[in-house]
Amino acid sequence: MRIRYICFGSQLIPLVALFFLLIPFSKSFAGFEAPPDRNPSVMITPDKQFDYAENLFSKHDYSTAVMEYKRFIYFFPEDKRVERAMYQTGMSYYLGGDFKAAVDSFQKLVDEYVDTGYAIKSYFKISEADMKLMAFDPAIINLNNLITVTNNGDVRDEAYYRLGWIYLEMASWEKGGQYFSKISAKNKDKYRLEKLAAELDKEKLIPKKNPNLAGVLSVIPGAGYLYCERYQDALIAFLLNGALIYAAYESFDAENPALGGLLAFVGVGFYAGNIYGAVTSAHKYNRKKTGLFLERLKDNVKINLSADVKNKGVCLSFQFGF
Amino acid sequence: MKTRFGFIICCVVLNVFWSSAFARQENNLADNPKRLHEASEKQGSPLLYPLKFYRDYISGSDGDRCPMYPTCSQYCMDAVKKHGSLTGWIMCSDRLMRCGRDETKLSAPVWINGEKRNYDPVSNNDFWRQ
Q1: Which listed site, A86, A164, A262, B51, has its alpha carbon 20 to 30 Å from A157?
Q2: Which of B15, B19, B94 best probes binding to A when mutated, by most A CB atoms within 10 angstroms?
Q3: A90 and chain B: CB distance < 8 Å anywhere?
Q4: Quick count: other Cβ atoms within 10 Å of Cβ A63?
Q5: Can you name the CATH fold of A46-119?
Q6: Where along chain B do its domains lie?
Q7: What does pTM read for this prediction?
Q8: What is the residue extent of each domain of chain A?
Q9: What is the rounded CA–CA span in Å between residue B67 and residue B62?
Q10: Coil, strand, or helix at residue A317?
């Protein structure tokens, strides 16, 4: 009996030791999970960052795209796509409607990269953004800078073409024509200059009103408005001024200088207003007719130049209104 | 008769001098209606007092009927602020004659509080002077 106890005791000790040794394994097999890592880290590679920015841009989330392109430029300044990221930053601002920021952004690219594909496209985009801001002079200066910087004849021709259109927008027909004539012979067909010249000749046919004549005619109240084809305004100006002049005259005639003076004071304002309004109406008339002519010209002969960055080329399209 | 016409001429001359004396040629204000409105409220030109009186006491009970945007009273205040009393008064008279007639067919439409108005700010009538 004693021998049996000794044998059992000698087997028990290794069994207990084995039990404790197997405890960690038993926990893992029983579904016990290790505590989660509280500080997970993601390695952002240049590819990931750039793709994310491009993805935002393609989804028209321009304000966030700007942030992500800037992040890319900051963290990976040596990457070969930095120039494109700068261009896309400008494009994000442009498409987001922040034209002032777009100009600044494109300008940074132009200052850093002088005559590269993106720099040339940036020059064009700067002028487009300036035009959106109605800043004609900076747009002209920018394109003239491009003409000075580039050695590429095609780029120069495009700059001349765009300059010509800026002058047309300013109703400087002659100067616009001068820039179109600077385009090299090989690109004349591409820009449809023959058709453009023919359409530009019709500029002389734009109906116009002479503002000075409108002012002089307004000596007779309403006649200036009548000349500017504002018939209702003409009638009101004639009746109102006529009534005020007559009332002032009658008041003085009836020995009532106070009322007469008051009526004369008001009457003088309306009389001068009738002259001012007629001159302004003539200018408005001319502006409207010129604008309509320009719109028709754009619809018929303007070539839409859009910078196609991926294919490093320029995409041309045109339409003609029947 | 001569003295009466003399009196009219005196009135005209006095009008011109009075307006010129208060004229403030501040052309650097942007065409921001809110900013212009705030500025004109602070402005002390005598022409603005009847305009302000009209806006505060008459226009409210008379109803918001001006078909233009900015309204004629606001336009007058903007014009006086931008060009001074003399030109402002002339532009104001011109606007009152044009309000709601041919201009409604010629100006661009805008929707203010769901109502169609015709956009005719000061800048649409002084662009040729700049």
Answers
A1: A86
A2: B94
A3: no
A4: 11
A5: 1.25.40
A6: 2-129
A7: 0.69
A8: 46-119, 211-300
A9: 14
A10: strand
